[in-house]
Every structure is written in C-alpha cells, then in structure tokens.
Fold these 3 entries.
Entry 1:
Amino acid sequence: MQSNEKNTFDFEAFVLFEQILKKHAENPSLRVLLFTSAQTQFFSNGIEPTLMYGKSESDVRKSVEQLLRTAQTYFHFPVPTIAVVNGHCMAAGAVFALFSDYRYMVDKGARIGFSEAIVGLNFPSIPTIVLQDLVGVKVARDLLYTGKQIKGPEAKEIGLVDELYTAENLFAESMKFAETLAKLTNNSSRGMKTALREPYRNRMESLFPTDADLFTKVILSQDGQEGFHSLIEKRRPKFVT
C-alpha cells in the first residue's frame, strides 16, 4: 500500500484493491499473497476521514458498501494471505490484517487496534465474529469497547498476531514463510483456504445489509461526524503566532 503517509483508504483505494484481488484470484500459479505497506510508520490508519465527513447519505452508503465488499473479497481470497504489519495498524487497516491468514508484525514502534469506539463509531458484526474466533469473546469485547491500541508483544500474547520481528528482519522472515507456503500444490493451497473460509460465507452475506445500514447510520450521526472531524483536525498543521 502507498496511498499517503498514513495509508488511509479512500474510495478509489478500496476499488483498486478489490480489482487487484479479483484480477489475481484465478491465477493458477499463485500460491500466497503478502500484504504490506510502502511506508515505515503506518501499515494503515484506516478509512480516510474526508471520505465520510460532510458527505451525503448516498455517498456514505456507497463508500461503506465498497469497504465491506473489498474486505470480504480479501477475506475469501483463494490462497493464503500474510499481513506484514510494518507500522501502526488501526481501524479498517486492522480489519484487513485480521482478515489475513497470518499476521507478522514489527516488534517495536507500532500498535494495532480497533479504534472505532474512540471516535464514536460502531464496529461491523462481520469482523467482530472473526475477531472473537481468533482471540476469544472476552478479549474481543475489551478491544472493541475500549478501542485499545496495543503493542506487538501484547498482540502476540493474545493471539492477534502470529510472530514479531525486528524492522530489519520483518520482510525477510515473512518472505521465508511465504516461500514455505508457496511449496503447496494448487489444490492444497486453495483447498485449505476454502475449508477455513467457506464456513463464514453465508453468515457474511446475510449480515452484509445490516452492517451496511448500521455503519452508514452511525457515520452520519452527530457523534460519527464529530469523530471524523476530529481526525481531520488532528492532521492540520499547528501554527504558533
């Protein structure tokens, strides 16, 4: 990813990502996908706040539905995926890491978290289910209600990430593991992924309308708009006179 200094997702980024995934999904020689950032400070800081602030209901709904579709396309990508979390990983960025099969994270200088509650938003039920299955109901509850942004060692302790590596070794170790996965046959690579992901498909499709409706409603609420406005204000340069 290389959209801006914090790798936030705007509408075009979601569309492009989905197009890339669909383009490569049927490549019979593909065995594994690595998902990382060209930045060193941020893996992804989530949704670009200007995408949701001050927009019409139809524009917000369009963006929300595209976000949910792209995330589900990534979740069901037919070969193993590895999120190489080389910087801060928040909100929607953390959802894409969560939706990966494996998560390798830098050991220092980065945090991961689902910070929606901090800015007055809700959290869709689809990634909530995946998060609960990964770290347990109680841990997922605490992460979501508090919006806590945790460092690598704690993320590994609770099972949110698989391995930690230094910034110098992170990509090399990720590639080493990817090369191991690449030795799988096409049938094994895709068959195992199907077995792991297919049980979620019907639930995801059935919950999509509810998630889209509620997330759109919350974003358009006063709390949601104030939350996105606060994120925009934090990015503005401060001048001393």
Entry 2:
Amino acid sequence: MTQAHLGLIVPPAAGAVPVDGPLLYGERIRFSARGLGLGEISTRGYTEVIDSVVEKALELKAEGVAAVSLMGTSLSFFRGAAFNRELQQEMARATGLPCSTMSNAIVGGLRSLGVRRVAVATAYIDEVNVHLRRYLEDSDFEPLALQGLSISDVQAVGEVPTAVLVDLCATVFEASPGADGILISCGGLVTLDAVREVEARYGVPVVSSSPAGFWDLVRSAGLDARSPGHGRLFA
C-alpha cells in the first residue's frame, strides 16, 4: 500500500510536524510541514504571518502532498468564521488540493460528537479568547465557561504539563452545568494524554485542536481517520 503524504502549515518557524500526527497514525501516513514564523500568539502576531499561508500551501503542493491544513486554530478564527471559509477556499483554489484549517477541525470534531454546549479551555490571552468565543457562536455552538492560560509565547505552549491541562478542563467543565463536552483550543498544546484522562473522569467527549487537526486533514484527504485508544473522536 502506498503511504499517504499530507501537508501541514504550522505556526513555529522551524516547521516541525506536531507530535500528535505520528502518535495517531504511525507509518500509515507521512506528514510534511512548513512553518510561518509566528512571533507571538496574539492578533498582532497573526496579522504578520497570515498572508504567507497560501505560499506555504503551494510549497507543500510542490512537495507532492495530497491535502493541506493550516494547523493553527487561532490563526484561522481570529478574523471570524467568514474569513476562515475564505482562507480555506483560497488555499484550495491556489493548490487544486483538498484544504482545511484547524478552526474547521474543532468545529467538525464537536459536531461529529454531538457537542453543542461546550466548556472551553485554551492557552490564550483574553484578547484571543474573545475571538474564539465569537467564532464558536457564529458556528452555532454555545460556549459556556471559557478560560485560558494567558500564554502568548509560541514555544511555551508546547511545554504545558498534562496535569495543568486536566485541571483547566476540570475548572471550565465544573463551571458549565449542562455542557455536552469540552474543547481544548490551541494547536501548540500537547493534549492526547489529557484528552483521555478528562474523558474518563467526566464521561463527556473532549475535542482538542492538534489531534482534531490531524483527524480533519486525514478525512479531507479521503482516508480513514480512526485511531483507537486516543479518545472518542478517533474511536
């Protein structure tokens, strides 16, 4: 069987493939990445790099990928749901490939699991949380408690311990009576262990940016996105 080859546009300049991809799909799928060089997790930082997204998608096409995703949640929701759709369409027109964004991924993941009233844990500063709340509301979700870790450093998000993520999920879920599930937003967070622990503790589905981004990209390419043992989204 030929190994599938999929492309990622990631915020850090180094352009490394996030750890979740190989953990979820092993040798089934090869991932290549291009980095945007995001300076900080803020509206100012996003504005400095967003115009490079299509160029990076074209570089990935030249490398032979079969589909491309912008793997930065806030990069695609910070200007709203309409902008996210336009960005996806522009990437697809330029490359002729199936294209998606991590903002599409979190919405698709929540919908696939029947979540509408959602407790939200993020890495973000308040400014970015405001954009996320608006994006979720415009996408027909009801975000309940929404709290962030106030991180703006691009590298620091990848160093957040699992225990901190679990505690934040507990805080927002317990402050959200009637929540159908939990969203962890920020593609730089390493969350697979936290997702499993929180789902086991509370019995509700958890959608997290980076795992959902891979799930969505694999589906966009017409491939089987299941990966048992990594939470309800992958069952």
Entry 3:
Amino acid sequence: MRINKYISETGFYSRRETNRLIAAGRITINGKVCEAGAHVEPLDIVLIDGEAIPANRSEPVYLALNKPIGIVCTAAEQVTGNIISYINYPTRIFAIGRLDKASEGLILLTNDGSIVNQMMRSEHGHEKEYVVTVDKPVTDEFTQAMSRGVEILNVITKPCKVDRTSEYEFRIILTQGLNLQIRRMCKALGYRVLKLERVRIMNITLDHLERGQWRHLERGELEFLLFKLK
C-alpha cells in the first residue's frame, strides 16, 4: 500500500498532509527516511517524528464548521490561526479541502482519511455552492461566461451553474476545486471578489450554523453523504 494511503486510513493525516510530512523528511519506514511514492508492507515499522502511529484509530469524527475570515485551512501548528488550533477538538482531525483565508463559510473536518480523496477529486462531480459579492454589477454576459467556463491556470474551468441573486451578488455551484478558482474566474472577466461564502458541500449546508461555530454532522446527513461517496 502506498504510504500516503496507509497513513490517511489511520485517520491521523490526510494524503495531502502526509505528502507534506514526507517532503519534510518526518516519516521513516524501517528506520529509513520515507520517499514520495514509497510502499508499506504489513510488517513495516512506520514512524512520524520518531513515534509510532497508534494501532487503534479513534471513533470516526465528521464536523461542519462555519469558517470565519482569517482562519487558515492547515494542520501546521506554526501557522497563526490554523483551523485545527481554532477548533481545538480533543482528537486529531483535518480539514477536507480548503477555503482560502479571505473566504468564509462551510468546511468539513474529519479523522476519516478514506473519504477525503473521494470528496476532492473533480471527476466525481460533487457539488460545492457559494454566494459571491463582487465590485461591479453582475450582468447576463458575466453569468453566461462564468457558467460556460473561464480560462485560468492554463485550463478552462468546467461548466457550472451561475445565478444572479442581486445587483452585486451571484450564486455559483462548482464540481471542481482549482486554487482560488472563483476569485481567478472573476478576475479574468474584469471583476473583483469582495466577499466569498461557501454555503453547501454536497448535501451538507450551513443550516443556521453561526459564524465561527461547528457541529457534528447529523446521522441522516452523514449516512447520505457516505452513501454518495461509495
């Protein structure tokens, strides 16, 4: 099994965080510093910072947070305002995906590494919905161009649903997650984002969750989410 899959399934780090640990030389396999793409055999000894990963993972945790502006979606303790320190949950968790520091709204956190890759890959078509305020009136030409796809980062974004909700605000539903995608799309069309809030991930919504507050996913919404990820 590849090392990042092995560690993510323990629930201690996501694959992305595991890759960062590998790059920093903090993981060893049988006493040797782990390299990217390394494989783990059943009897191998895997250590992180010289310590073994506990054999028994904790109970699965699934949280929804209404992230405030200024919180950074990283588990790196040295980063001021990192999301893990902000929540201060009693067991190890990590964020599923990202919401940039200047944005707010819904983000999910878990210790279940098995679902992260399924949720993040764009080919799975999982929806994420945002409400966006911009610096100029939202025109039909703008919404049509956004929905068709915009060239950013040397690719054309996937078609998406865009609806104007007021003179300076629109709603957008994405099925991919390029870096700063909405901000870059708007900039390419001559607009600047003033406020960006994520209000839904698949079937999970903010549901009156106050800014800065988090909650455990309810049984029904969690069961539906996991069913969709199968």
